[in-house]
Specification:
Elements lengths: L1 H10 L11 E6 L9 E4 L5 E8 L5 H4 L4 E4 L3 H11 L12 E4 L8 E7 L9 E4 L10 E6 L2
Parallel strand pairs: 1-3, 2-8
Antiparallel strand pairs: 3-6, 4-5, 4-7, 7-8
């Protein structure tokens, strides 16, 4: 087995144990929380996918959740602007400061978004949050570019 792993490494063939994971599943629920508070994106990824799963039961009009990514310094402004965008736009304003976002989901639904890792800068902090009015105060976390 060791010889096999060494041979694979010498050939430069990626194996599942050595490849960067360029996706993350994050879950939300009817208690207004994400199951993760931090996401580290491997620097070796060209694209990164976030899959949001709403594990609750309530409809999106009552307890909708989405996943929105901005630079940390843009977070509060974007969170406040989200209410004005309204449910028809999934509480996501049309603004270039938003790096990526999923659709607004009701219980039992899921959505995924893939974004270019080149939009992220090393050493910079990013905030992900749910932009449903009032949720962003509790439903937020930090995303960083790893090594």
């Amino acid at each position: 087995m060791i010889r096999f792993v060494i041979a694979i490494a010498l050939l430069g063939v990626a194996t599942p144990g050595f490849a960067a994971v360029c996706e993350q599943v994050i879950k939300s629920d009817d208690a207004m929380k994400f199951d993760l508070k931090e996401i580290v994106v491997p620097k070796s990824c060209k694209k990164f996918t976030v899959k949001l799963e709403h594990t609750g039961r309530l409809p999106k009009s009552a307890m909708g959740h989405n996943w929105v990514l901005t630079r940390a310094e843009d977070f509060q402004g974007m969170a406040k602007a989200a209410a004005a965008a309204g449910i028809a736009k999934d509480y996501v304003p049309e603004d270039g400061r938003i790096i990526a976002h999923t659709k607004l989901l009701g219980g039992g639904q899921s959505d995924a978004v893939t974004f270019d890792v080149g939009k992220l800068a090393a050493g910079r902090s990013y905030t992900f949050f749910c932009s449903f009015p009032g949720h962003w105060a509790m439903m937020k976390g930090v995303l960083t570019l790893g090594k």
